[in-house]
Amino acid sequence: MDMASHPASINSRAHGPAQRARWAALAQDAVEANAFYAPDMLCAALDHLTGQPDIRLIESFDSGELIGLLPVVVTPRHGRLPIPCVGNWMHEHCFFGAPLIRKGQEISAWRGFLAQLDAAHWAPGFLHLQGLDAAGANAAALEALCVEQRRGRREVHRYERAMLRSGLDADQYWETHVRAKKRKEIRRLQKRLAEMGMVEQRLLTSRADLPHWCADFLALEASGWKGREGTALVCRVGDAAFFRSACAAAFDGGRLHMLRIDLDGRAIAMLANFRHASGAFSFKIAFDEAMGRFSPGVLIELANLHAVQKDPAIGWMDSCAAADHPMIDSLWAERRTIVQYRIALHGRGLARVGRTVAFALANSAEALAARLKGQS
């Protein structure tokens, strides 16, 4: 099908109300949920995360209808290799990279994305895609389209992270998937904590409480090791503003899921989740390290398990955790496989030659490194 049937456009970082409304409509019908690219979080990131490279928002259309949105950036290096390339934009607080694509339009949307990148004078090297679900609709569409277009495609890396997806209620899940010894220890910690004062678990329900909850979360996160290392959200003004803005937009859209555990009215553990479609993404967790002997991080995750499993609107939750995370891996039994791909870009003349060479060099360097690692 020729590109006349798939008009596409590239937008700058400017994003007005009309664009946001268009993206919101697309997000509602997306084949793969991604709260990080839904307007709530994407626009908050574009507005507040300063110091980012030039971000281009690629839109793909079919017969005038928006069918895809992919934020991309140009990077001067590909991992350790001094090879510039274009990649999907995953900022420091973005943990899933699947573009928003309308259901049933997966291959058409990717056809539009890749055609734009092929034609773009600013797009060097190849397309490096991070944070995709190996079993998701985007991965499947990419594989099919690359075969059809004889376009090089290489898997760069994959890992598994914890996911919560079960028809069991919270108590059944806890009994089934968490070791008896650990369950006993958690019950003991809950009892000891209750002896310290009044313990209360709460889910955010009031818009009026949101600023207070955000402030408590930022302070709690900054009180621990992230604050000492300068990586807490509050350590950078833009990051804190991004968090507040994303939470406000998500709450107004019915997509913020925020929990806390208080001891005598003071937060000792909090977490924020962002919902999209039938799923949710665990975004950030914070707890009082001075209360570490009570494992407040585990206790807030137990509260989260109960909140998620009794909410019929949440069918699954992605932990967004690193691979082999000792705490969440011991609590959640399901896994999601996250992959990176290197996709060849085409073009004309010297542009095509340069991109072909860059793709081949990256593949060769990776193969050589793997051989040397095997010999060591």
TrEMBL record:
Superkingdom assignment: Bacteria
A GO MF label: transferase activity
Domain BioF2-like acetyltransferase: from-to ranges: 180-304
SUPFAM superfamilies: Acyl-CoA N-acyltransferases (Nat)
UniProt KW keywords: Transferase
InterPro entries in the record: Acyl_CoA_acyltransferase (IPR016181), BioF2-like_GNAT_dom (IPR038740)
Protein name per its UniProtKB record: CelD/BcsL family acetyltransferase involved in cellulose biosynthesis
Organism: Sphingobium vermicomposti
